[in-house]
Amino acid sequence: MPSAEQQDPGPARMRRSLGVKDGVAIAASSTAATTSIGIGMGSLAAYAGRQTPALLLLAFLPILGIALSYARLNRTEPNCGSGYTWVGRSIGPWPGFLTGWVVLVGNVIFMAYTGAVTGSVVLQFLNKLGLYSVWGLRLDPSSTGVSTAVGLVALVAVTVTAVTGVRAATRLQMWLLIFEYAVLLIFCGYALVIGDQPFSLSWLNPFDIGSPQALAQGMVIAVFIYWGWDAAFSVNEETRNATDAARGGLIALVAMLGLFLVGALAFQRVMSTGELIRNGPQALTFLGGRLAPEPWASLPLAALMCSAFASLQSSVIPTARGALAMARDRTLGPVWQRVHPRYGSPAAGTLVVMALAALLAVLAVGIPKLNEMILTAVNSIGLTVALYYGLTALACAVRFRDSLRKGPVRALRDVVVPAVSALALFGLGCYLVRYYATLSDHFEASPDNGWFMLLLPALFILLGLATAAWAKWVRRSPYFTTGRGTDADTIALPMDEEGPPLPAPAPMPTEG
Question: What does the alpha-carbon distance between residue 215 and residue 208 come to, in Å, rounded to a whole number?
Answer without folding.
Answer: 10
